[in-house]
Specification:
Low-confidence stretches: 162-171
Shape: globular
Order of helices and strands: EHEHEEHEHEEHEE
Largest sheet: 6 strands, mixed
Distance between the termini: 30 Å
Helix content: 25-40%
Structural class: alpha+beta
Oligomer: single chain
Number of strands: 9
């Protein structure tokens, strides 16, 4: 197993985290399905994300000890990641507006990540108004700019983001 040490900055976030103050960062992106997509589009997206069997750094890093009180903890590489746990499929209650999405994100973000597992969770949220869906990525190892870059690198060929910029969707 390959290992690396957590940066001083990331270690400080890890040590400051508490039940009352989660210190992970997150990114939220909303999408419209591609033209002609059927009602099972989001379910198929989740199925394909969970089907991944090869993991690259840093998606497969975890703490060898699940303690937040460590000086520059070492991360270890793992290869048997439970994607049923890490890729979660959720649905908003009707009418699926900004208020309902905000309430769901607030609830998700208030929960701490499990330090015994790789330090990320991806929530695929359907049921947004106008047939949209969202991806919400929580992570402990990256700063916000890294989360944005990782979200942008997800293979989402054919989707359009809410800004109208082309995204990509799974091959």
């Amino acid at each position: 197993m390959t290992a690396r040490r957590l940066s001083v900055l990331d270690t400080s976030f890890l040590q400051l985290e508490s039940a009352r103050m989660p210190m992970h960062v997150a990114g939220l992106m909303t999408f419209e399905p591609p033209p002609g997509a059927g009602p099972e589009f989001v379910s198929e997206l989740v199925r394909r994300l969970r089907a991944c069997q090869v993991f690259q750094n840093p998606w497969n890093y975890r703490l060898p000890r699940a303690s937040r009180v460590q000086f520059r903890p070492q991360l270890e590489e793992v290869h048997d990641i439970d994607l049923e746990y890490h890729v979660r499929h959720l649905a908003l209650p009707h009418p699926g507006g900004e208020r309902e999405l905000g309430q769901m994100i607030a609830r998700l973000h208030s929960q701490r990540l499990d330090f015994r597992k790789p330090l990320w969770e991806l929530h695929v949220i359907e049921g947004l108004a106008l047939k949209r869906f969202a991806l919400y990525l929580q992570d402990t190892l990256w700063d916000l700019s890294e989360v944005e870059r990782r979200l942008a690198d997800l293979p989402l060929r054919g989707l359009k983001g809410t800004t109208g910029t082309p995204a990509r969707f799974l091959d």
